[in-house]
Amino acid sequence: MCVDAVLRWLEDWAAGVNWFAFLTIPLFTGIVGWLINASGLWMLFKPVTFVGVRVPGLREVAGLLPRKAQEIPGWMDGGLGWQGIVPARAAKMGSIAVDKVIAKLGTPAEFYAQLEPDRIAEHIVTVFRPDLPALVDEVMLREHPRLWRDLPRGLRQAVVDRVQAQLPGVVKTITDEIGVHIDQLLDPKIMVIDHFRANPDLVVRVFKDVGQRELNLMVSFGFVFGFLLGIPVAFVDQTWHVWWLLPLLGVVVGWVTNLLGMWLIFDPPEEKRILGIKVQGLFLRRQSECAEVYARIIAEDVITLERIGDFLMDGPRGDRTRQMIATAMRPAIDRAAGPLRPAVNVAVGRRRYDSIKTSFAAEAVGRTIVPFKDVEFSRQQADRIRILLAQRTKELPPRDFVEMMRSAIKEDEWMLYAHGAVMGAAGGFLHLGVFSWGWVPWFS
């Protein structure tokens, strides 16, 4: 009796079904799901810089909106437009990269040790030595031109030779001092944040180079998820025949499609077994391979000898670095003067002699650090940093590893879900227009 009732209900239901519309709903939701994830990927990365218009008063109004709304790129600056979520959060990505990953991969002292300070010292001596005679001549002509001109050529050359002889020891002292105080001189967090903020395209490169395979899969699975979710939607639509159900369910399909796409990539971080099947975020399954890519990018573009040199000399603690180098350079003059030091003191006076030492040290500071900024030498040293980063990244717990990529955008994922919901609703209205409202004549 019950079976007969069910069969009669199915016959009545089937008689009222628009089968063409029914069969096209999953196809529609599949295509919309693909478009949602493809356009969501575009929203993540493009454009690298803000594109839009400034709207008077928007900045003040945005300040009154809920915090989530304030996170929409451009609004808090009074701009109506769009900037990719990832480049818009470049500074945040840098902060998280340090807190969650780089800080766990090594201390500033460990990174500096990998750069081989002894090789740095040798390179500084090699680069600095040819300029030393001109530097000594320049300082002496400025500080005490008469004395320097009156000295016989042989004595002047002797001074230069003695200074050059002191150079390797002085430079070794400088590189050792930098190593001892590197934790106070170098702040990786500031260095990385500033670099990411100034180069948002680098953050995009990190995401794409490390996770491009998973991102492509997310787009492909957008069709699969959309198609599968469209099957129950087709049954509901053709059962109740209420026009607003399709757009409303389209919102759900669009939201869930993006949600499933993100889950597919990042969750669960730890490997689990469900009915004997391995379940783990796709991105986590390639941790070893992704670690190599991530380490290469960071070693070549972020934590480099060149950038460390820039930060040491021109960063917020640059004055301390310069003072430390100058302090190490001053004894070179005393040692260069050797037995003649008392006579020189009498000839030029103690104050002028100290001024010569100070002036020489100040002039030498910039030239001493120049080899840090040697692009080719920095590139040669990058491989050691890459090896260290790759090794430590591979050893990270999966949960920490996934935070490297996801944490910077996690708070902004709602924009992707909202975008999916809007497109899902639009797909529902489009299907209604084509198959129910006769927007296209041959379907009416």
From TrEMBL:
Keywords: Membrane, Transmembrane, Transmembrane helix
Top-level taxon of origin: Bacteria
Sequence intervals crossing the membrane: 20-45, 215-236, 242-266, 414-440
Signal sequence coordinates: none
Keyword Transmembrane helix: yes
Protein name per its UniProtKB record: DUF445 family protein
